[in-house]
Specification:
This protein is of the alpha+beta class. The protein folds into four domains: about 190 residues, Jelly Rolls (Sandwich); about 140 residues, Jelly Rolls (Sandwich), CATH 2.60.120.380; about 100 residues, no CATH class; about 210 residues, no CATH class. The chain is about 25% helix and about 30% strand. The strands form seven sheets. Strands 1, 2, 3, 4, 6, 7, 8, 9, 11, 12 and 13 form an eleven-stranded mixed sheet that branches. The chain has a seven-stranded antiparallel sheet with strand order 16-24-18-22-21-34-35, with helices on one face. Helix 4 runs antiparallel to helix 10 and helix 5 runs antiparallel to helix 8. It is flat.
């Protein structure tokens, strides 16, 4: 009976006595929170679970202003980190529920020093305690959206230390309490993590101990961990063409393995010839296709080599194929890298309004009318009001509406200093992408630059001039502008010309360096998205009177579209609200965007993308900062019309007076 009562008592207390052994920073929900836990005053740590003591406390009787007492508490996560984790740029929140018992008003709360170590990321803050900082009441110390140190990269590696140290200074005898069991915690928004041990399912596989594959035309999963070599042996029958397809999962650039051509060793331990290589990226995965011709039958060994401190999961399969099935040679590779303009047009293009290019016709007509006024004044008008009012007034109106107006518009449309055009915008973008893809660049830096809209970072200004030719009215009455500068853009030519200019084209073996291949894929995607959103932002309330449009936008933060590791449109014009920008992102981002590169000794890439099917005119914002020359506005046409009307009236009156005078003269002389 006593034993049964004891078991029941333990079962009741078990939820309160259980100590969680879970401790991990990862992307799963529970792994994004670390709680401060103490099993005793001297045994404190960080963990995902909620367990241990409800609070720990201390009494400092010797503290005084001359010899203050410093209390330090340290919490190290245990067990240690197992996952490979991409740290966020900001700390979501930190709550330390610390109070001084004697301080009922909150005015004597001490400042709290916080040190947070997340692997190589060292961070420290001071949270004010006494007075208005805590609203004059004893409450928890909190931090929200604080920047984390990313100077040593964003990767948290397995086995690295995660530690929180807090300290505070007491200047009088005090009793303090730190409340636990979920009341004191750290919150981090982790977007990516992986357990390398679980992902490395291909082991054992090495050059000395290759893994046997009974069938080559099936998917083989694995992970390339560090500088290991993953090797597979398989039998291959005689064939015309043999493809090895490797799908690399996307990982942060800090741990991305080099995607070198794998070793394929055939019968007699002989290396196979260099294959043709096709690379395709859709923003989520990178697919490498290696094509070999005329391999003899026999046993083959495929080896993928890694690099120290790198990690990346993959899947691969072999496929026997034949000539004429798919792009098996450079001649069969489409090589279509053209930008297709007009995909965001929401109105009827056949009903577009043509925008006058320069105002030359208005100026020529104005001078013609002015010469008419001067000529009319030179023939000695018979009506006194012609000389005193009609001709001077019509001349002034024609000068204002037909000459000064177009000249003023020309002056307003002149590019501002530092302004660029679309061609220069794309050149700057390519230069930025090339620089940021330099080996060793942290993932957060790459994501910031590649994901920025037009390559313009937060706080920077885009000053650009663009020529438009047509205005297409949408159902809501606004107009979309079309630019001839955005038609017929060959993204592939821009990319390969840039590579040749910087001397990063094909090497002696006819293949592009790894950095150049990555550049082709990233630049193709970035330029496509830049042109897409630029076209979508060309929305105005009324038809411009001049074809030269000026864009003046200062960029600010915005949520990203696309994947976490390959974001898009993370900066937005300050003139567009975050809500409107988020709606545009969601409805505009393509259903599919895929960039393929054929490393076949030629400069060829395929750009395949499917526009969004959910885009609606209401999703397109009207952005301030997109301006055009207006001169004297609509009043210019009124002035010109009035001036011409006065000339017509004057001509009619003068003609009639002269006709009457001739009639009277003929009657008088006869």
């Amino acid at each position: 009976m006593q034993r049964s009562v004891g078991i029941i008592f333990l079962l009741v207390l078990l939820p309160f006595l259980a100590i969680s052994a879970d401790a991990e920073l990862g992307m799963n929900g529970a792994e994004q929170s670390l709680n401060l836990i103490c099993d005793s005053d001297d045994d404190c740590f960080l963990s995902n679970g909620v367990s241990g003591e409800e609070m720990i406390s201390g009494q400092e009787n010797d503290a005084n202003p001359l010899t203050p007492k410093v209390v330090s508490l340290e919490f190290t996560m245990k067990p240690s980190q197992n996952q490979l984790t991409l740290l966020p740029e900001n700390l979501n929140s930190l709550v330390i529920d610390l109070i001084i018992r004697e301080d009922l008003s909150g005015w004597a709360q001490p400042d709290l020093e916080v040190e947070l170590k997340l692997g190589a990321s060292e961070n420290s803050w001071i949270i004010d305690g006494a007075g208005p900082a805590l609203n004059a009441q004893p409450q928890s110390y909190e931090l929200e959206n604080e920047s984390l140190d990313m100077s040593n990269g964003r990767m948290l590696l397995p086995g690295e230390i995660i530690r929180l140290r807090i300290s505070f200074q007491l200047e009088r005898p005090s009793n303090w309490e730190l409340r636990l069991r979920g009341l004191s915690n750290i919150e981090l928004d982790i977007d990516w993590s992986v357990d390398p041990a679980q992902a490395d399912v291909d082991e054992p596989s090495s050059r000395q101990q290759p893994r046997q594959s009974s069938e080559v035309e099936i998917w083989h999963d694995g992970a390339l961990v560090g500088d290991d070599s993953d090797c597979f042996e398989f039998d291959l029958e005689e064939n015309e063409l043999f493809n090895i397809i490797i799908i690399w999962e996307q990982v942060p650039i800090e741990v991305k393995q080099p995607h070198q051509t794998p070793d394929l060793i055939g019968p007699g331990n002989r290396n196979t010839p260099t294959p043709n290589v096709k690379t395709t990226s859709d923003g989520e995965t990178e697919i490498k296709t290696y094509q070999y011709r005329g391999l003899e039958s026999g046993e083959y060994r495929l080896c993928l080599d890694g690099r120290d401190d790198k990690f990346q999961p993959y899947s691969w399969l072999g496929r026997i194929t034949y000539e004429g099935i798919g792009p098996n040679s450079p001649s069969q590779f489409e090589g279509d890298g053209s930008w297709e303009s007009g995909t965001t047009i929401m109105g009827d293009s056949s009903q577009s309004e043509i925008i006058e290019a320069s105002g030359f016709f208005t100026l020529a007509f104005g001078f013609l009318m002015l010469f008419g006024v001067i000529g009319a004044a030179a023939v000695q008008p018979t009506w006194k009001w012609t000389r005193r009012l009609m001709l001077p007034l019509s001349g002034v109106l024609i000068i204002l509406g037909g000459i000064a107006h177009p000249v003023t518009m020309w002056g307003e449309s002149l590019p501002e200093e530092g302004s660029i055009n679309i061609e220069r915008l794309l050149e700057n973008r390519l230069e930025q992408i090339w620089q940021v893809l330099e080996p060793g660049t942290p993932q957060n830096t790459i994501a910031e630059h590649l994901g920025s809209t037009f390559g313009i970072l937060v706080g920077e200004q885009l000053l650009m001039n663009i020529e438009v030719s047509n205005a297409i009215q949408m159902e809501d009455g606004r107009y979309q502008l079309q630019s001839p500068e955005m038609e017929g853009i060959r993204i592939d030519r821009l990319i390969f010309n840039f590579l040749n200019e910087v001397g990063a084209g094909h090497g002696g073996d006819g293949l592009l360096p790894e950095r150049s291949v990555n550049f082709v894929l990233q630049a193709g995607r970035a330029l496509t998205l830049d042109l897409l959103i630029l076209e979508a932002l060309m929305v105005v309330e009324e038809v411009p009177q001049n074809s030269n449009i000026q864009i003046d936008w200062t960029m600010t933060n915005a949520g990203a579209s696309g994947s976490v590791l390959n974001p898009a449109w993370v900066s937005r014009p300050t003139e567009i609200s975050l809500q409107d920008w988020s709606i545009l992102q969601a409805s505009l981002f393509p259903e599919l965007i895929s960039i393929s590169y054929c490393d076949c000794g030629q400069d060829q890439m395929d750009l395949n993308w499917a526009p969004s099917t959910t885009l609606d005119p209401r999703d397109l914002p009207s952005a301030d900062g997109l301006t055009y020359a207006i001169g004297f506005g609509s009043s210019a046409a009124l002035m010109m019309f009035t001036g011409v009307l006065l000339i017509v009236i004057t001509g009619f009156v003068e003609t009639r007076r002269r006709r009457n005078a001739n009639r009277l003269a003929s009657v008088f002389y006869h």
